[in-house]
Amino acid sequence: MFRQFYPHVIEFIGAINPQLFREVKGKLKPKNVVIVSLASIIGQVLLYLYLNNLLPTLEHRYSNRYCTSTPADSYSNLGVCQEDLLGNIMALKELWWLDLFTTMSIMGIFILLVVGSYMLITDISKENTRNTLNFLRLTPQSAMTIMGGKMLGVPILVYLFGALALPLHFFAGLKANIPPVLIFGFYLVLGASCLFFYTASLLFSLISNGLGGFQAWLGSLAIFFFCLTNMGVSLEAYRWSATSFDWFALFYPGMFLAYLVKATFLSPNTIGYLSIEGLSNLNWYGNFWWQNSWTGFALIIANYGVWTFWLWQGVKRRFHNPHEVAISKYHSYLISACFIVFNLGFTLQENSLSGSDFKDKLIVFLIINFFYLLLITLALTPQRQTLLDWSRFRYENSNHRHLVKDLLLGEKSPAIGAIALNILLMNLYVTPAIVIFSWGEDKVLMLTGLILGALMMVIYATIYQLLLLLKTRKRNLIATSVVSFLIIAPLWSFIITSGSGLANFWLFSPFPAVAVGEVSFLPLLGSFLTQVAVIIGFNYQLKKMLNKAGESETKALLS
Fold this sequence. Notes:
559 residues, mainly alpha, 71% helix, globular
């Protein structure tokens, strides 16, 4: 029957999406289907038998998780399971089914996200190595068709593994008294998370093709540790950090399981994990949006939707032109606006904040902002040849005005102006919060730290752009190494000096807000003037190099 049905399915898929047809035909072979099906079924049987072995019996009836118990005697805390009138052990079967449901859910999350992402990155890496990805670029199919076909086709064996587990998983949820609509809600959240992480994996594979075989391991391990960390937090936490770090929990689909656990109406002390209190205490701009399951569902899906959309813009750009920057400058401003709105919302989780409490939250906020701006710098900064083409155009069209517009919106111009504007927009948004929630001197110091941090970020971006103009083939490695050293140097200085002079070192670090309260006015002024002078000097050097390169390129073409 399978041999008769299989060709018709393949033909139907080929008519819808040729790329999906190519992937399915290569991976969904009878041998692979049988192996994956057996692995899924055997895994479910073993899990069922393992958990079934944990149920209380007449021989093992002491201190069991799945039964109501009473003390065995007045001298011992050891509990003994109760029996019904027929002499059978009274087991909490709903709790047992809930444990089975939760275990399968968490295992499914790891298998779908980690294994699926690994397969996608490996596939794109192989396509790059064989140079077949350039062939796909020449086809009339759109990036949506090709990359969408890969997202559906490359991990199709993983989908098959999960689909075979759905009947037992859904049945376990029903037996645990979880409403079916919430189970389907979890499936939608899991699907949205797959779409997000698979899109991120595609973008990572397109922009990091120089890593070779290490590419897939790096990407999948990053997702694995992200899921592992958030799994531990969601299982155990009764209250989260009340800082911007809580935002990352929204990208872990297992967080939604707390709503399903609550719907069973079992005692939280009896269950012992996935407490709803963590979600109930989670705020965004002082509002308890996550107390209701469907409001929380909508916000989780919206969060996935926003960032999947922006990741997909990068995938389309890098697919059509592998030498193009990952995002346009215009899109970077919109992405920064989305980012700062989300990030500040999780910083202001409480309606009333003391000055010191807000300062601690602000430092976490600035740390996350800094790493975001690093990613924006990497995504916006053009390579050497792109800058040479731009500089030659500027040299040949000396009457071309609109330089500021070109620097802020142009596709091939240096990225420093756009990065500076991104920083300005983000800082303007956070400034009212600093003015409202800080007091006295703290207000001035925090604003000073914000300005110094912005200047340091512009310095890093300028240095990175300058180093990408080097003629050596290892310019990307050199630029990344130099900027990384400048970022971690303050930490090294702290270790070497055992903390003495820490404040002065950290004024020239990515996080000067940590140290502005520890130094006097003159070091702050000196730091500000030094940073401004460095920015002016480096940008003057960059302009000089680009003008010289444009002149040289023009002469080379004319000759």
